[in-house]
Every structure is written in structure tokens, then in C-alpha cells.
Specification:
The protein has 166 residues and is an alpha/beta fold. The chain is 23% helix and 37% strand.
């Protein structure tokens, strides 16, 4: 099976959105996101899977150099996370799969027990968010962490990796 990863930026209360918008703008984190989700061997591409609200929050623009799946019960979208994952498995060009939001999609992905890595940027402070990233399950260990800052914001890049044998 192809590796499945989650990627998110949250505040210290695990919030990532308020009124369907990200409460901070961090160019460094956007570059970090692009590098991680775009990095694939020649001739391959990564898939990004997101809910419809996340897609709308991004201005309804598909992310370039990645295969985009938008989840929704509405016509014209992929109907479920399981269907998107199956399509990714059957597409030879797809290298790895990144789930990029929203709240329900993250919850569902963790429940499927296929997530290998969680890339989590933690922005210092609490921003009165109304959408939250779920708690990281106990079978994931903090593998790497590094600090950065930009425009008055301090944040940590974290890589959580599922423990071997779980």
C-alpha cells in the first residue's frame, strides 16, 4: 500500500481554522507544505486529499504538480475518503498520499489506521479556532522537531511517525 500522511498547521490548542479561514499567514510554512506534498520521484506525483470546505478555503484552486481529490457528497466530487484512497492505490503515477484537511477528513483518516507520518506545524498561541486537529494517537512518536519564526509568529515543525510494530 502507498504511504498515507497527514499534514496540518495548528495553534497550541490544536485549532487550525476559524470561520473556514486559517488565522495566520506563514510563507515559510506554506513553502514547507508545498515541498513535502510535492516531493516525488521523476515520473511520479503525490496525491492530496481534502474536504470540500478546505478546497473552497483555498479559493477552489487545485494544487499544482499534485493529483487533487476533493471529498464531498455533492456531485462532481469524490464521495468518500475510502474511495479516494482506492483510486490512489490503483493509479500507478501516484507516489504518496497526503491528507490536508479538514477536521472530519483528519478524524476519518486516523480511524482507518493507514497513516504513517503526521507533519504538524504548531504555531505558538491560541487563536479562537472552531476547527480542530484530533489528538495524535499514542502509537505515534515525535520523530523530529525544529523551531522557526516569521512576522511575529513562532512555530515548530514536527514530524510524528507511527511506531514500528503497531
Amino acid at each position: 500500500m502507498k504511504p498515507v500522511h497527514l499534514i496540518v498547521a495548528v495553534d497550541e490548542a490544536n485549532g487550525f481554522a476559524k470561520d473556514n479561514a486559517i488565522p495566520w499567514t506563514l510563507r515559510k510554512d506554506l513553502r514547507h507544505f508545498k515541498k513535502i506534498t510535492s516531493d516525488a520521484p521523476a515520473g511520479k506525483q503525490n496525491a492530496v486529499i481534502m474536504g470540500r470546505i478546505t478546497f473552497e478555503q483555498m479559493g477552489m484552486r487545485l494544487l499544482p504538480n499534485r493529483i487533487n481529490y476533493i471529498l464531498s457528497a455533492l456531485p462532481g466530487y469524490t464521495s468518500s475518503l475510502e474511495k479516494a484512497l482506492l483510486e490512489c492505490e490503483n493509479d500507478a503515477i501516484i507516489h504518496e498520499i497526503y491528507i490536508i484537511g479538514g477536521e472530519k477528513v483528519y478524524q476519518e483518516a486516523l480511524a482507518l489506521d493507514r497513516v504513517v507520518n503526521i507533519y504538524k506545524t504548531v504555531v505558538q498561541g491560541v487563536y479562537a479556532c472552531d476547527r480542530f486537529f484530533p489528538s495524535i494517537p499514542s502509537d505515534y512518536m515525535l520523530h523530529e522537531e525544529r523551531q522557526d519564526s516569521e512576522g511575529g509568529y513562532s512555530f515548530n515543525y514536527q514530524l510524528w511517525r507511527k511506531s514500528v510494530g503497531t
